Amino acid sequence: MIPPTVAPTDVRAHLERICDFRFFRGRKLRELLTFLVEEWLKDGGKQLTLRYIAGAMGEPETIEQNSGKKGFPKTRGNLGHVRVRLKRFNETEGYRDRVIVKLNPGSYVPEIGWNPISSGIADLDPTTERLIQRAKTAIDKRTLRGAIQASQYADQISPDLNDPRQIAALLFLEYAAAPLIPSLTCAALEHAQPVVDYIKKSGVEPWEITFVEACIEACGRHEWQKANVLFESAIINSLGEAKNYWWYTALLACLDRAEEAVSILEASVRHFSRTNLAVRADLADMQTLAGRFADAEEILLGSLDFAPANDPRFVFSSMLVLEAQDKLEEAAALMDQYGASFNREAVIEKVAPLLEAPPTSDSIEGILSLNEGHLFLLGLHVLILGRLKQTAVASDTLNFFMNMPYGQMPPVELAIAMIGVGRFDEAVALLRKAAFEAHDPYSMWFHIFPPFRHLKEHPGYQELLKDLKLPRQRKR
Predict the structure, then answer these.
(1) Cys staple from 242: which of 114, 206, 238, 263, with CB 3.0 to 4.6 Å?
(2) Best CA proximity match to 140, nearest among 262, 271, 266, 278
């Protein structure tokens, strides 16, 4: 059960941490924030009006220069500073703190409660807990680089088989990063179930292991409803944290509940990740799956206020929504702009190590320094070229990637490209491989992902959906 309120000791401990934040070192702002919090602890802040606060801070009522009316301009200004600094703290150092304190616009009463982004990890030694929290924060970036960083943090922890909570947390990190780098995780599915069973037999059943069990049910056994029950249990036991990972919102879309997923991602953007392009792109992708194309385009357009137009997450999500609407020329132009934004010689230099040996964390760093990359960007490009009847270019591009000695395209991305050149049988075979051999998390979307609508008349594709216990591709 989620506690109805946070204990005063937890609130005051968190307040002390906020006051140590580098942007909260001004004495007046610390005093004001402390006063607001103590009033909330006393009676929920029932007396917190501007006049009451100003009186406590020692500001007399004066004539305001702008309006000529009586008021408390210094207190109102300081409240604005507190509001902005709290927001900055919650988006940086305090992102995964168990307690969250917010001061919403238009209100003088702080909002204090358990942070839905973090459940904390009890009963682990401080060093291990710190590394796990850092790994979770890296996964929150929803990028390939973030997933690799999470893996590096996890590698610094020496597994202790006598500590079920630690093992559960490490296995959770592996699966939480899976949608970003699926080749590194889901292929080890057969090794995960014994670990889950071992932890459950120990008498300890942390929410992280319930989350992993839900992932196994979803992409190992394709038991979508059972996975949903497990995810919802993990959400309750994690004080809400579990709902913010890709898996849960992806499963909601799979179950034809994309609008619920959109609401979760909208809240994440609004409260925590307003300038996180990856989260905004995930929201746009979910809006595209829900058929809300105009909303997806709007959220992506707003991202250009703080992100470059050649960011691969922006390019992919924009191309996805355009291809879903059959706006192929616009999508192709966007991809051309993306390609033109890179120096060809620099690209060849960065890619060369991946053509000579299997990828390593060092060799992939060159690509990450060039751009973050996206799992399906190149496949979607080939699909669009093929649909524009640029068959020769599409085929040459596809053959180039198929003949790379190392770092081949994931099966799902290769299937998308195959659709573009009309090789539907091979596309279906690749999707089947992704679902039943690689246990790819994106198999949850095989019936709703826009590029696969071109397979809806293919009997092998419909048979695949039946085997995956997914409904037939909906007519658009």
Answers:
(1) 238
(2) 278
Domain ranges (residues) in the chain: 8-114, 126-248, 257-338, 375-476
95-116 tens-digit pLDDT: 767 788 999 888 899 999 877 6
Q: What is the 3-state secondary structure (H, E, C) of the chain?
A: CCCCCCCHHHHHHHHHHHHCCHHHCCHHHHHHHHHHHHHHHHHCCCCCCHHHHHHHHCCCCEECCCCCCEECHHHHHHHHHHHHHHHHHHHCCCCCCCEEEECCCCCCCCEEEECCCCCCCCCCCHHHHHHHHHHHHHHHCCCHHHHHHHHHHHHCCCCCCCCHHHHHHHHHHHHHCCCCCHHHCHHHHHHHHHHHHHHHHCCCCCHHHHHHHHHHHHHCCCCHHHHHHHHHHHHHHCCCHHHHCHHHHHHHHHCCCHHHHHHHHHHHHHHCCCCCHHHHHHHHHHHHHCCCHHHHHHHHHHHCCCCCCCCHHHHHHHHHHHHHCCCHHHHHHHHHHHHHCCCHHHHHHHHHHHHHCCCCHHHHHHHHHHCCCCCCHHHHHHHHHHHCCCHHHHHHHHHHHHCCCCCCCCHHHHHHHHHHCCCHHHHHHHHHHHHHCCCCHHHHHCCCCHHHHHHCCCHHHHHHHHHCCCCCCCCC
pLDDT averaged over every residue in the chain: 86
What is the band of 279 on the pLDDT scale with cuts at 50, 70, 90? Answer: confident
pLDDT in tens, 18-62: 988 877 878 889 999 999 999 999 999 999 999 999 999 998 888
113, 6 in Cβ contact below 8 A? yes
pTM over 0.90: no
> What are 100's strand-pairing partners?
113
**pLDDT band at residue 68, thresholds of 50, 70 and 90?**
low
Which pair of structure tokens corresponds to residue 141? 């970036």
CA–CA gap between residue 201 and residue 361 (Å, rounded): 36
pLDDT on residue 126: 80
Count of CB atoms within 10 A of residue 476's CB?
Answer: 10
